[in-house]
Specification:
Number of helices: 15
Helix content: 55-70%
Shape: globular
CATH class of the largest domain: Mainly Alpha
CATH architecture of the largest domain: Orthogonal Bundle
Strand order of the largest sheet: 1-4-2-3
Radius of gyration: 21 Å
CATH superfamily of the largest domain: Hypothetical protein af1432
Oligomer: single chain
Structural class: alpha+beta
Number of domains: 2
Strand content: 5-15%
Largest sheet: 4 strands, antiparallel
CATH topology of the largest domain: Hypothetical protein af1432
Order of helices and strands: HEEEHEHHHHHHHHHHHHH
Amino acid sequence: MEYEYDNPIIQNRLNLRLKKTFVGQLLLLEILNLPAFAYINGIFEKVLDADEGITNEFISQFAQMHGTNIFIHEEDYKILHHSLREELTKQTRSLSIGDPKKNANKHVYLLSMQMGNLYDDPFNDELLSNQFQNSKNLSALLLNNKDIHKGLYDSLSKSRYHYTLTQPLLSSIVLLSFLQTTKLFNEREIESLFLTSYFKDIGMSFIPREKFELSHLTEFDKKLFADHSENSMKILEGRVQLNKSQLNLIKNHHYLNYKIQSLVSNKPIPENAEYLTGIESMLVSALDILVAMTQKRPYREEVSPFKALELLKKVISDEYPSEFKALVIFIKNFHSK
């Protein structure tokens, strides 16, 4: 029986049964068992029948017309998640075979899709464990192939993923690349900081997506954002192989933001603001800020890497002069490639 999807009763049922996903993920399936929908002018409109094949052309056209979010039935959503985990596992097993650049790009593509799923379901242990292990595998690939860092960064920067998915990985790629150049950290330490950096923002899963598009936030919204670091720690604690030091870095990874806000507002750092100093904390926080400032957001334009460094200079150069100088040289070389 063909449903009349503009029927209010059917629409209400769809609202309960449909799950939002990134349209590009549909390429992991040949067909859907049930139709797919776009949410247009307050109602769900069918855009793909169950018996239609999923093609690159459909995905491209859909993205141009409706954006990247598509809605599918929960049954297909579960199949899609399973297919993505299987594809990531298969990709992981072949990371050391063939072209490292192509392998890394595909791995990042799949990781980004799955991170979106994890943001939707942060307490799914299987999903979190799979994402953690595959992120660890990516760090090993990056450590063994220094020449692919910039290309991977540029490719991810140009992707159509929401910035909440790209930002953690972009900053982690730059962090790993910089740590390698310093020769102050061994590979195990670099991997540890890469994973810490990548998972530090998973607490943002508690924040409604529309809040990330706003340039002006209410006091309640500000608290939501301020709490995401601690929420990240709570989500991860005891569920993945992150030690107490890594969890503390995650909890306090916005400590430079406090210092910058104090500098800009000419007000002291709030007494209840907890933060952790140290070279590891400084680097995780500094590169997160630098990458964020150099990426466009819906509510502001990006700035140049050196404009971002000018701001960072004011909050880290006195305490870490050698590290800041090394960072300036690294960023100059990184962005000249």
